[in-house]
Amino acid sequence: MNTSEIVLLAHGSGGSQSHELVERIFIRHLGQPSPALEDAAVIPLTERQVVFTTDSYVVQPLFFPGGDIGRLAVCGTVNDLAMRGAQPIGLSAAFIIEEGFALAEIERIVLSMRAALQEAGTSVVTGDTKVVERGSADGVFITTAGVGIASPKTHIGATLAQPGDAVLVSGAIGDHGLTVMTQRQGLRFESPLQSDSAPLNGLVAAMLAEEPDIHVLRDPTRGGLATTLNEIAAASKVGIDIEEATVPVHAAVQAASEILGLDPYYVANEGKLIAIVPKVAADSVLRVMRAHPLGAEAGIIGQVTTEHPGRVVLRTILGTHRILDMLVGEQLPRIC
Amino acid sequence: MNTSEIVLLAHGSGGSQSHELVERIFIRHLGQPSPALEDAAVIPLTERQVVFTTDSYVVQPLFFPGGDIGRLAVCGTVNDLAMRGAQPIGLSAAFIIEEGFALAEIERIVLSMRAALQEAGTSVVTGDTKVVERGSADGVFITTAGVGIASPKTHIGATLAQPGDAVLVSGAIGDHGLTVMTQRQGLRFESPLQSDSAPLNGLVAAMLAEEPDIHVLRDPTRGGLATTLNEIAAASKVGIDIEEATVPVHAAVQAASEILGLDPYYVANEGKLIAIVPKVAADSVLRVMRAHPLGAEAGIIGQVTTEHPGRVVLRTILGTHRILDMLVGEQLPRIC
């Protein structure tokens, strides 16, 4: 490959090649930050609550069915904002790139980011690029941060689950994690698996328009549904009962998880949310979720209880009960 | 080393070891985000302008005289906000850590971040940790983002330099870059070199209190003073004349740069700023800068001109003129 087509250390120098890279790929696809050539973005503001989040993305492989590291980096940060009831007003994107990485791959990633940004209705307003020597990183790592705005009336948080509340999930679980793992193992299945990576801010806006008093919203990423429910149970000092028969799992995910020995309940999702809402609002919120393309497979999967505080209990299809613990150890490194 | 003392892939899992790492080191030293266990921070807000920035830090070595990667990651982002006239209201910190990295080193880095945050009067309000396999990263990379607030009256930007304006620098140049390079080469000099890494938001607040109409503020990091001045000249479509005799350079930096064949004008600074101000305000701004501990060696080093637009011209100590170009290629990889 011609050296003009790969990332060189000079692309991280801050000098002329850095400018070339920024102009040739980042500004070309993500638009010109306004004003240009500043390290920080100024965002005009109303009187709302500001929400701020960050995540690093180190997924391997970088490209997989249904997404890639760029799509994940946008959706993950948009979703972290959405889980606090906020709509994004701007994202940052910081790239750490291994020397020798193909510029065409960077461009492919950035184009995917642009598509995801359009779906979410937001943009990258500030960024950074560093290049490290061959062997000092693994292709590319992307860290996004996001600033969002929420209504001052919105009070959503992991500590706010109340006994009696209904637990909803926006769709089938395990797709992202199983897709990445099967790619990494070089496995192929009859039913093509596909990552669910998607920006959930539109779905959340529709849900909040229907029911402003949503208690908890969380996206079950690393650690999966089981770990996220455990975090909520611990933070709210409540128990959570889940009905296995009501938890949607695609057949291809079930098949792949059996072959790989992975439990879909502990596998990362990148386009799903858990909502905990007052019981009286459960049916209307569910209806709104199902009317949205990203919530078509939504369901009510359980309820919050005063029993076994801090624990999540699964009633299995066989009618037995088992404790769904938090993930221990590393099941799936570099899943996002 | 005991495996309980090093970073394992499980520390990036999102499960119980991730929680342990966050609680044992991050929350312990940086404080509890409020509310806990959320991926995004809500920041109560006034009616001011919001400023938003990000940078990744990949410096090698991780520790050096006068600083370390953690101090850089805080100061760099605080300074990017300050260069837009903003005071920080919260930072994010995202860590990408190589499996096997010592937790004690992470802790040392986080403690250094805490000290820098205290100097800047701000805090880390949200964060993330990913762990990659041995050989997939080089120790630790840190990406910080920052949200700041500026007065709606503040208009500072690289496009706003006006012919006739004075060009000021807040102190001697080249200390950070030469310090890191001599450490990397294993060199030692008689006069100990030390990075200038420092948060400049206090200095900027004092300058803006004296003169609200500052036109340009920039911190000359990667690419150094010469590259930053070129960026300003290009963005403002003006020429800049610099008087070599007035540019402060420490003797140890001069000596090290001669031995290493590096030009201090192209070397990164991490605690210095360039200010471009109306000529009538130059003396009063300089007085305020010199009264601040981080501006004791400040000086007026040149002026903005209508001649040679887009170019920076240095009048040397010998009285000759030479064009100070933008950095081409990579002089100093992984300097920040």
Short description:
The structure is a homodimer of 336-residue chains. Chain A is α+β, with helices and mostly antiparallel strands and 336 residues long.
Secondary-structure blueprint of this entry?
The structure is a homodimer of 336-residue chains.
Chain A lengths: L15 H15 L9 E4 L5 E9 L5 E2 L2 E2 H14 L4 E12 L4 H18 L3 E9 L7 E11 L15 E4 L5 H11 L15 H10 L5 E3 L5 H13 L2 E5 L7 H10 L13 E4 L4 H10 L7 E7 L6 E4 L5 E3 L13
Parallel strand pairs in A: 5-6, 10-13
Antiparallel strand pairs in A: 2-7, 3-4, 5-7, 8-11, 8-12, 9-11, 10-12, 13-14
Helix pairs in contact in A: 1-3, 2-3, 4-7, 5-8
Describe the protein in words.
Chain A contains 8 helices and 14 strands. With 336 residues, the first copy, chain A, is an alpha+beta fold. Chain A has 3 domains: 1-32, no CATH class; 39-150, PurM-like, N-terminal domain (60s Ribosomal Protein L30, Chain: A, 2-Layer Sandwich), CATH 3.30.1330; 166-323, Phosphoribosyl-aminoimidazole Synthetase, Chain A, domain 2. The longest helix of chain A is centred in the N-terminal third of the chain and has 18 residues, at 103-120. The radius of gyration of chain A is 21 Å and the shape is globular. The two termini of chain A are 28 Å apart. The mean pLDDT of chain A is 89.
Mean pLDDT over all positions of chain A: 89
Major β-sheet of chain A, in short? 7 strands, mixed
| CATH homologous superfamily label of the largest domain in chain A | PurM-like C-terminal domain
CATH C-level name of the largest domain in chain A: Alpha Beta
Helicity level of chain A, as a percent range?
25-40%
How much is the radius of gyration of chain A in Å?
A: 21 Å
Q: Say how many strands of chain A there are.
A: 14
**Alpha carbon gap, first and last residue of chain A:** 28 Å
Strand content of chain A: 15-25%
- Based on secondary structure, the structural category of chain A is alpha+beta
Read across the widest sheet of chain A, the strand sequence of neighbours is 9-11-8-12-10-13-14
Strand/helix succession of chain A: HEEEEHEHEEEHHEHEHEHEEE
Annotated CATH topology of the largest domain in chain A: Phosphoribosyl-aminoimidazole Synthetase, Chain A, domain 2
Count of helical segments of chain A? Answer: 8
